[in-house]
Each structure stands twice: as structure tokens, then as C-alpha cells.
Amino acid sequence: MNDRSFTNIDPVTFEVLNHRLLSITEEMGIQYMRCSGSNVLITGNDAATAIMQPDGALVSVGPYIVTQGNVLPLIVQSTQRLTHTDVGIRDGDIFICNDPYLGAIHHPDFATVAPIFHDGEIVAWIGASGHQLDTGGMDPGGFSIKAVDTHQEGLRMPPVKLVDGGRVREDVLAWILNQVRDPLVGLDVRGQIAALNTGRRRILDLIDTWGIDAIRAVMEGSITHAREKLTERLLALPDGQWREVQYIDHDGHNPEIYQIVCTLTKRGGRLSFDFGGTSPNARGLINSTYSGLQAAVLSSVYINLCWDIPWNRGVRDCIDIISRTGSVNDCAYPAPCAMATISAVIVTIDATWRSLSHMLVASERHRDQAMAVWSGTSMAPIFAGTSQHGFPFAATEMSHFGGGGGARTYADGVDTAGIVFNTTPNMPNIEDQEAEYPVLYLFRRHLQDSGGPGRFRGGRSGELAYTMYRAPNNHLEGLFAGTGAEMPNAIGLAGGMPGAAIRVARVVETDISSRLAAGQALPASLDDVAGRREILCCKHVRTPMALGDVWYHSWQAGGGYGDPLTRDAQAVGQDLARGVISATAARTIYGVVADAAGAVDAQASDTLRATLRAARLGRAAPAGGDGEWVFEGRGRHRYGDTLVADLDGGRIACGQCGHVHGKPGENLLPRFAEFADPLASAGAVRGQDYGHERFQLRHLCCSACGALIDVQVALEGAPRPSMRLSFHG
Amino acid sequence: MYTVAVDIGGTFTDVVVFDAANGRTHAGKSLSTPDDLQRGVFDGLRDAAAGAGVDLTTLLAGTDRMVHATTQSSNAVFAFTGARTAVLTTRGFADTLLIMRATGRVAGLSVFERHHYRMTEKPRLLVDERDIFEIPERIDALGRVVQPLDEDAVRRVADKIARAGYEAVAVAFLFSHKNAAHEARVAAILREMLPEVYVSVSSVVAPVMGEYERSATALFNAYVGPVIDQYISRLEASLRAAGLRQKLLIVQSNGGVATTAQTVPIFTIESGPAAGVVGAAELAAALGLPDVIATDVGGTTFKVAIIENGRWGYSRETVLNQYQLRLPMVDVASIGAGGGSIAWVDGRRLRIGPQSASSSPGPACYGLGGTEPTVTDADLVLGYLSPDRFLGGRMALHPGRAVEAIKSRIADPLFGGDVIGAAAGIRQVIDSQMADLIRKSTLERGHDPRAFVMMAYGGAGPVHAASYGGEVGVGEIIVPFLATVHSAFGAALSDVRFSLQHSHPLVLPQAPDIVESIFAAMEADGARRLREADMPQERHRFERWVEARYRRQVHHLRVAAPALIDDAGLKKMADDFEHEYERLFGRGAAMREGGIELVNYGVDAIGSVTRPAAMAGPTCGQSAPSGERMTFCPLRRDMVPTPVYDGPSLPAGALLEGPAIIEHPGTTIVVLAGQRARIDAQRNTRILLAAQKGA
Q1: Do B552 and A391 lie within an 8 Å CB cutoff?
Q2: Range of weakest confidence among A142-146, A559-563, A637-641, B568-572
Q3: How far is B361 from A419, CA to CA, in rounded Å?
Q4: pLDDT per residue over B588-617, tens digit each?
Q5: Three-state DSSP class for residue A226
Q6: Do the domain assignments include residue B121?
Q7: pLDDT at residue B104 is higher than 60
Q8: Has residue A141 got a pLDDT over 90?
Q9: CA distance B593 to B610
Q10: What are phi and psi of A653, to 5 degrees?
Q11: Residue B514 is part of a domain; what is its CATH number?
């Protein structure tokens, strides 16, 4: 089958048509986005467009939200399965669906799909999907914190015919608009219709010019190419099994912790992701359906392994996903799941990401490609009310789309790099926000010490604060839907530490109003705001904002790579001089003695670093618990800077001091030293403000020199990260 | 009297001289001298003077209009040789230029580059935390002062800047486009305390909403400010010393010119390509053709600009080193596809680019050690390029090296060893990528490319235009007679032009006089600038535009605005917007209930220059082929004997049947089988294509 698809078409025609299909996907996206009015959609590029085969197999996807493109095939399949014969699927039809149990990731993502007919037969599908400002439901903005089933989350459409033979069904559109608070939703839906009409015309033109056989062959060839290339890449990577654990804090009702356990098995050209051990359905909105789970796995694989491979069905062909319906990332109807994208989905990406990073770090050829986890979560800080222009609104503050990038094995992570599922990150200008909404920002800046410490530091995240400003009747309401406040999710790699968690706060009973009235200086940091500070739950129900209240949040940064005590001292000095890290972090985490201008005292730093290493060993005990850490097979390999596995020589040694930990095939875990520190030891805003103290930072280090091997975010009773690497020579 | 234009490019400095006395045109060329650009300018001027039969002093003394397009600002930006710069921001927002709205990680990158997350970075920073100073002050969205400017704080920062030895300062406060008072006051204090330091003010350079882009524009202007100021004043002094009596005019990125004193330094960025678009528009206008697709194929990039009804568009955003700026800049779309693009095998796929062989070692056929096959190698193997006439004979090409590279890397793995088939494949893939960009650029504006004529210039444009033009289905391709010095040609014809803009959101309905007063104020400002550029009133012309949106929509649409906004004018503006919206997005894609909001207003204040009379070429000359060589025929999929013509000696009126090769110094025009070429009265080559299907 693979051969047939490529011999049916010469490489030149393939290349020409493949480029055209990509251009069409992009053009559909441009068309959609330009029509839309939604700041979430445009600022966040929170949309997707795709071209698919008749069975829904993804061929080409636009450069927007990675996760959304992956759901369009499921929507096509649901449309084919569920459309009643009386309704029928005909030329010129467009179907709309946002049911998370039928393909969407969560309710706000409305997806539209259209069949393309040629000679009376469906030859392709095209689709567009985008995040809507409101879906009805209990709370404005689509995130109903107190929902206990999906019916409370608002409009949930099975595949419904929205355009019938080229004519928009205004009754269906009117019905949709009747269910949502924001009439802009109508504009977005029409934008999708315009995009699909354009895409359909372009593809029909292509068929007209090149013939249907050529178009079929190029669609199949594009998928085959991706499958072959990923298979080849996987064959060059070590086999093995990795277990990772990640957490979601708070389900909207209770401060419960949910765990997502991912066991990745890689053998030859296949990847298998098994989510056994994952917590059951949550009571509240943090769940994700299978659509979200699959999108998460694919996003992780695309980014970590398919940087030069088309993101299409060919990638999915190399992957098995094993999950149990009824768990937090494969929930069972009618579990609520409005927050899926920014809780179960992104946390599943984090868990799968670190498994893949471990695989890459162990490969000489592909070590450069490994990255620590990026900003581990996303959020929806929503403020709603009536704007200074007289419009009712529910706005999502999108600045957190500048999450920190994960550190690389040769360089720091990128500051305010973006959220991983977004190929084109975008934060709003303050001026756009204030011109549109009745708020005044006090500051927005990089968050100090947020980047995960390491030999290479994680990218920084940011923090911001705003206050209500000239709102009609001085009334606004705030709601917060976030994850990762009690613990960070951007875990480091190969001894690197986690980046910052999120933090949500408000300060009440402030002097802001009197300062504004008197034209006095406004505070420019959270600590400067006079008043009573409240740390808010990361799932904060809708509450009124009072005049003068200051609302604050910060988001997650990137994880670090390598032991921070091995970071170049001059680089630490630079970070200090730039304010990237605090003086405390420079000394206690990096072990560098430097003045405020960044001038390093090399000798004092060496001494301090030696002291800190010794102190690690002083409080360490042999590592224990479940899990394993095994190297087997042939050859000589490095695991980052931390371990050298001379399998032919029969020993695995410390990459720093050469101390021999053990033999091939042996579980090395008990040979490592282990100690636990509070999360705060990785820096400010690692969850300490929430006071639950359920998590700790578990450090694995060399029992001889104290060099860090792995730093884990640990919860009592949860499974441990684990790995078994099998080198095939 | 002479009109003289000088355009500095990466490799060559081009000069065009129009001699009004006899209606003749002379071109000059010299190698660019990046270490001291002025040297190349004088070399080129001497070359052109020699062509005109006069010495440099006579040429300059007889020049009534001297126009210059420079790469100096681009050089400073891309080689990081600009000024040591400090930035003053509103307290609480120092990191705006470091956060870069997060988009800074990927701005300007292709989809493929964006997919490789690990490789993406924010650009090398022009300023970091240590160079950015927060000033207590705050203005709100309506321009009201929330917190007064702390002038003592400004003075303290000015002292620090003096002590630290900064050469330039950018001032960029929140909402300065609504109320510039704080920025103006800070600028006054800085200029008084730091007279040697260049001061760039965001509300002056980019008075538009969006603090990141406005700040970035002010930053880049500060960064190149001292360099450009010094460069153009030195050049003007040298030219005057050498005999020039007129003010030197500098080409701006909006496609117009301004005096040296009026030049906002960052507005000179990418002014050469802008002048090329002006040249295309001017030439098309002279030929009576309103709608043109202007294309330019260089070594690494393919550039497209769309001219509608004689006018070029302005880009919404300019990306420089991944910073996003707001400049009045001619809209030129580009992709990384050019003569240097490298062909490679990816699985069983034939891929071209985005990697490109730089000029050294360059394509394999340069014989400078390059071993990877490029588009230029394919062009040589297919016979389109002559081994001994490349770059006007300045560089010999090595066909054997090209064949070897294509055979081993492409033909053997994918084409069963067929080198010609492989080379033809490379060419078809790159040409179709270019065609896709042309399609995207026209379709995005709601046009059908088949309704346009195409213009092709630059070294490799005429080599490929017959293919990509054929693929998008244009009926005619024009290769200007001065194709290889096309930007200098355009510069010579550029009007004095100031692109002024202003942000002031207004939801309709509004009293017309409010809107009219916005335009009137800009026009008064524009008229003043035109007078400063010695443009008399009768040559003033104003083009108005407005950017509007449906209320609460994020995106704007730009439409022309009437010359007078009264009740009828305002209604026409609203109607034009709705009409344009429907044309672009289709019926029903608008939510009219919210109403139309006017957001940004613009005036192009234009001082029209007298165009040199079109010169007619000789009607006699050699219209027979000068030789013959084998070239690839895409119809027959084989090498066929092809006549080769000497371009400069082809007379006006000559008619050639494709396949044919027309060789000019510096470029080669390929005419394919089924196409015909005619040399028009101005000796431009007009390629006529049979109607093609598909767009």
C-alpha cells in the first residue's frame, strides 16, 4: 500500500500538490481568523483548519492550535456515524459539532466539517475549529467551576447540519445564538463557513486541474511519508519503558489531587502510551474525554519527534494509546470537562513530554532535540461585566499565553515562549485590553526566579495585576480556572528543577481608589499594593470585584536542564544583574557568590558549591520505593551529563565523578542517594503560598559526589517515575 | 538636467541617470562596499557618468534631482552595529520589549520553522533589563493622565544614561498615541541634558495603538538613528563637495522620498525593494496597466507585491529580526526561495529549501566548493543560464559541477539517474512554491491573479517568470528593460511622500466634522512637510485611508477615504467598508449589529515629481538570434535547440516565438514554448502567454 501511493505519483507532482494543500489549509485559517471577533481566537490563535481523507484521516493541518487540529478527524467520523439518513450528507453541506464525547476537546471549541464531493462521491473532508467566547452554561466564558455534569456546561451539539447544500440554515444559527451569551459567536461560526467555502472551492479547482487520482495519491502519499519518516526515526532511538506522573490540583469542588500516570513503551518503530494508574473521573470540570487524550499524545509526539515530519495521520499510525474510560483523561459521560484543554489535556502533554525527553536525552544522535517540560499548564482568568462601551462581555486574560519554554540540553529555555499547544504564541497588548475593557493594569512583567533552575535554566513566565477602572456601575466579576498552583508541572530534566507554579491572588481594602483620585503613584508590584492579600484557589468561582481591588496572577515557567550547581557561574551572574534570578537563588540554588552587578567571586562560588553538594549527601539516604532505573543492551551511551552507561564494559557510572553506580540490567535506584526538600527549594512560587505541603521535591543524586540525576515533584503514595533503557547496540 | 538615482544592494550598487536633454537613460553598476557604502556609490556614479559621456562633477552639477536608496539601516540591524541604546518605559512595564508579546519567538518564521519548537528563539536582544528604565507616569486608554510624569525621576535616569555612555534613547510610554505630552516632555528633558544622545520618541515614530509594536519601532529607530543620521549627512556633504547643488533625497520604506533632514532613520529600512515596487507601478502606469503583480527573485528570497489600480498596499506589520514594528512600509510578501535554495531528498520526497547556499561557497556551479545542488544549478543544467554570461559575465559557471551535484544528490536517489528530469523537477517545485505565494497574495485581497499582468525583475526573476507566471495563469509578463537596476529606476521616479497615521477609535454614527478634523490636521501636517521638501502647493496631493472594523472584531480592513468627510462622505466611507468586507469574506460574514468602528486614519501627503519622458528605443537593430543552445522544454519534457538573442541589441517591435532565450547583461529572459515575446517601444520585453487553466 505504501509503495502504491508513491508510485502513483511522481515526486515533482507530489511536491507541487502537497504544497498547495498546505497553502489551502493556511488560507482557510487566515480567512477564518480575519472574520472572527474573538480575542481568544485571534490573540491566542486558538483555532485549527484541516484537510482530511474520506474516512477523516488527517492530511494537512494549519499552523494554529496543535491540539484542535487533531479533533477534526473525530468530528468527521462522528458526523458519518451519527447523521441520520433522512438528514443525509450531501454536496455543499457543512456540519457543526462541539460535543466532547463526539470529538471536540471541550464545549467552547466549535468544529465545522464539510464533505467534498467529486462525481457524486466524497473524496475529502475539510474542517475548521475555533474556541468560542461563550457556550451558555452556568458561568460566562465557558468554564463553569461548579458543574458536576456536562449538561451544566452549556450548549452541546452533536453533528448538526449548519449549511444545507450551500445554504446557511439560519434557524440552526439562531438556535445556537439563543444558547450563548455573546452574539460574537455568530460571527465566528460564519467565519468558519467562509473558510470552508474557500477551502472547498480551492480543492475543487485542484481536482479540476490535476485530476482526482493525483489528489488522492498526494493525500495518501503525504500520510505515508510521515509514517515512514517517524518509523525510521523511532528505529534510531533506544527502546525502553518510561513512567511519568503528573498532577492536577483541585477539581472545582474540593482541593483533591488527581494523578495522570503515563507509561511509554517504545519498541522498534512503535510508541505505546499506557495511562493505567491514572485517577478516576473528577467530580468537576478538569476531566478530558478521549478526544483530548489523543490530542495530547499527538501534540507531544509532533513537537518532540516530528519537527520535520508532517503532522498528520501517518504519525498516529505509529502510536498505540491505552486508557480506561472513566479516568480523568478519558472521562465517562456525563463527567464535566470544560477545562480539559487547560487541565487534563495539557497535564497529559507534560507527562508524555517528559517520557519522550528521557528517550531523547539517552540518544547521542538526538540529545539536542530534548527539552524539559514547557509551561506545564495554561489557564482561563476571566473577568466579566459591562464594558465602558456599554457592551456586556466575558473576557479571558490571555497574557499567560507567554508561558516559559523548557530548557534545552545546550541552552536556556526561551522566556515567555508560549504554551506548547500553540505553534504561534500571542499575548495581547495592554493597550488593546484597556481600550476594550474597563480595567487598568498596574504591571505586567517577567516573574523573577520563575525559570526552572538548571545547568540550563528554564524560560521565565510572567505576572500581572489589574484593577477595575471606570466600569459602568463599578461592577465587574472575576472567575479563575487554572491548574498547577499547589505544585509546578514544568518538571526539569536530567537534574534540572521545575519552573514556577501558578499563583492567583487579590488584594482587597486597598488605597488604589484614593491614589487614582489624587493622581498619586500606583503600586508596581504585588508587594507594593497596600491592603489585605488573599491567595485564591486556582478554581475560583465567580465573585464580584470591588472598586480598588487588585487582581493578580502569574503563570507557569519552563523546567530546567542539568544540575544547577554546574551552571556557568558567569551566566548566573548575568541572570542576577538582569534580575532574572534573585540574590537568594544565586546563592542557595546555583551556589554562586556575586554582587548585584553580576561580578562573580569564583573562589567563593567553588567553595559554596562544594558545601552545597556535601550538604545534599548529608541529608540523603539510599533511594527507595517502587520504580526502577535500568540500562541494558550494548554499546556506550550517555544519559545527559549525569550518567555514562558503558554496557559493553559492564558498568554505569556518574557522569560527573565517575563513581560506578552498578551493572547493566541492574536496578540502579537503590544505588542512588535520595533526599526530599520543600518545593520552595526550587525558588519562589512553587506552590508554597497554598500551604497544603502535600508535595515535595524528590532529588536523586550520585551517592559519591552529590550531583543531581533527577529532580521529581513527588506526592506521598503516588507511583514514582521509572525508566528502563534497552540499547540495541 | 539629470535625474540620478542610486540603489545599494547586497552585491551591487546600481545607478540610473535620466538625461532630460535627450530623453536617454544610462545605467551604472559597481560592487557594493559594505565597509564604507559611500565608496560604492561614487564608483557607480562614475560608471553612469561615463555612460552619459560626462565626468562626475558635470553630472552632479547638472543634477536637479538626486535620489538614494540605502541598505545602511538594514546593515546596522542585521549586523548588530547600531547604537548603544537605552529605553524609558512606563513604570510596571519595563519588560514589554523582552516579552515581545511571546510572538517574538516565531515572528517572521515559516510554518516549518515554527514546527521545530526546539530551534526557535527570541532574537538577539537590542536592549535587556539593564538598559531599560521605568518612569513613574500613566495615561489611560482615552488619553487622560492617571498619574503625572515624575520629572525628577526622568532627570535621575538621564544622569545614569549619561554616565553609562548610551548613544541613543528610545522613549515609549503606554497610550502615548492618545496623549503624547509625557513623551514630549521627557524628550525635551533628555535633549536638554544629553545633547549628544539621539532621542527617538514612540508617539512621533509610530503614533498608533499597540505598545509593543510602537516601542519596538521607537527602539529600532534609536538603534539605527545615529548611524543613519551620520551616514546620510556625510554622503550629502561628499556629494555637495563633488558638485551636487540640490538636496539629497532619501528613499523611504513607504515608496516615497524625503530630504535627509526629514528622514526618520528606521523608515529607510528595506527601501530598495520598496523602490522596486514603485518602479513596477510607474512602468505599468506608463503602459496603461493598472493591476500588476510585481515579482523579484533574488539569491535567497522571492518577493511579491500587488499593485491594484496603480497603488501598492502598506504592510500592517514589519518584522525585523523577529521584532514586530509598525512602519509605513510597502507591502512585500516573501518566502525563502531563490537561486540559492538547496534541493534535497527527504524520504522519497524531493524538497527544495528553506536552506539556501549563501554567496560563498554558493551553488555547486560557482565552483567555490559548494556541493549541494541549488536552483541556479538546475537552471544551468537546463540551459536557461549561460556558463559565461552569468552576472554580466562577472562570474564563470561550471556546468560539470552542477550536473555532478544534481546527479549524486537528486537524480540517482529519485529519478533513476536522469539529471535533466531531476533538474526540471527542482525547477518545477520551486516555481510552484513561488506561484503559491503569488496566489496567496492575490487571493487574500480577494482578487483573481489571472486578471493581473506580472512584472519580473531582479537577477533571477526573468529566468523563472515564464514558469511561475504560467502556473498562476497571467496573460502577460513584462520584463523591464532596466530589470537589473529596477530599484534605482523606481527610486528615480519616486514622489516625495509622507505616510501619516493616527489612532482614534470612533463608533459610527459620528458627526462628520469630527472625522474630517482628524484628516484635516494630518493633511496640514503633511503640507508643511511637503513645503519643507521644496514641494510647491500645486504639486501637493493627499490620499486618505481609514482602517475600520465591525465593532468588537479584532481585525481591521483598510479602505480609501473621501477627500472631504461630510454626511455624504462619511456614508460613502461606511458603504465602501461594508462593500469591501463582503467582497473579501462573502455575504453574511459580518455582524453589523455592533456597528462600524473607525480605528486608524491615514494620509499619504504626496509631492508629485515630473516623470522623465518615456524614451523610445531604436527601431533598428539586430533581431536575428545571435546563437543557439539546448534548453529544456517543459512541453516536450526534453532538451530542444533554442535560439539565443542579444537583449540590448533587440529593436523595438521585434517579435520572438518561444522557446527563446534573451540575454541581457545581468539577467536572462526565458521564453517557453507556446509563449511569444515582443519588444515594446520602451524596449521592455513583453511575454504573452496562452490562456492557462487553474488559479
Answers
A1: yes
A2: A142-146
A3: 39
A4: 666 677 789 999 999 999 999 988 765 655
A5: helix
A6: yes
A7: yes
A8: no
A9: 48
A10: -125, 165
A11: 3.30.1490
**How is residue B274 written as a grid cell?**
520598496
Instruction: Decide if A63 touches B, using CB distance below 8 A.
Output: yes
Per-residue cell: B33: 562596499
How distant is the Cα of B250 from the closest Cα of chain A, in angstroms? Answer: 33
What distances in angstroms separate CA A368 from CA A150, A372, A491, B360, B640, one per listed residue?
43, 12, 18, 28, 49
- Other CB atoms closer than 10 Å to residue A88's CB: what's the count? 11
- Which residue, A350, A400, A427, A464, is CA-closest to A45? A427
Q: How far is B580 from chain A (nearest CA, A)?
A: 13
pLDDT score recorded for residue A8? 72
Q: Number of structural domains, chain B?
A: 2
**Beta carbons of B175 and A431 less than 8 Å apart:** yes
Query: What pLDDT does A1 receive?
Result: 36
Nearest to B212 by CA among A556, A375, A419, A433: A433
Query: Is B164 inside a domain boundary?
Result: yes
**Of residues B351, B430, B453, B344, the one with CA closest to residue B384:** B430
Residue after which a domain boundary falls, among B559, B583, B607: B607
Residue B458, pLDDT > 90, answer: no
Residue B377 burial by CB count (10 A; 0-12/13-18/19+): exposed, middle or buried? buried
Closest CA to A687 of A407, A465, A489: A489
User: What average pLDDT is seen over chain A?
Assistant: 94
Q: What is the CATH number of the domain that holds B148?
A: 3.40.50
The yes-or-no verdict on residue B256 having pLDDT over 60 is yes
A42 close to B (CB below 8 A): yes
Q: Across chain A, how many H-helices and E-strands are there?
A: 16, 30
- Interface ipTM > 0.90: yes
Q: What pLDDT, in 10s, does the model give residues B490-520?
A: 999 999 999 999 988 898 889 999 999 999 9
Region of poorest pLDDT, from A253-262, A416-425, A667-676, B210-219: A416-425
What are the Cα distances from residue A421, in Å, to A58, A133, B562?
A: 17, 19, 45
The burial of B641, by beta-carbon neighbours within 10 Å (0-12 exposed, 13-18 middle, 19 or more buried), is given as: exposed
Mean pLDDT of A5-15: 78
Residues linked to residue B678 through DSSP beta bridges, in sequence order? B655, B686
Whether B99 sits inside 8 A of A519 (CB atoms) is: no
Q: Which of A181, A414, A574 to mutate to test the interface with B (most CBs of B within 10 A)?
A: A414
| Torsion A639-A640-A643-A648 (CA) sign | positive
Distance CA B27, CA B21 (A): 16
Instruction: Look at residue B124 and tell me if it is in a domain.
Output: yes
Strands A629-634 and A503-508: unpaired
In sequence order, the 6+-apart residues with CB closer than 8 A to the CB of B561 are: B519, B544, B545, B546, B569, B573, B601
Is 60 exceeded by the pLDDT of residue A88? yes
Peptide bond just before B354 cis, omega within 30 deg: yes
Helix-helix angle A290-305:A344-361, to 10 degrees: 30
Q: Which three cell numbers stand for residue B485?
A: 537596476
| Residue numbers of the domain that contains B84 | 80-227
Between chain A and chain B, how many beta carbons pairs sit less than 8 Å apart?
Answer: 246
Chain B closest-CA separation from residue A663 CA (Å): 33
Q: Determine whether the interchain pair A425/B554 forms a contact, defined as Cβ–Cβ distance below 8 Å.
A: no
pTM over 0.90: yes
Nearest to B555 among A34, A197, A232 (CB): A34
Which of B558, B579, B607 is at the close of a domain? Answer: B607
Please provide the average confidence, as pLDDT, over all residues in chain B: 92
In a domain, B159, yes or no: yes
- Shortest distance, CA A351 to any CA of chain B (angstroms): 18
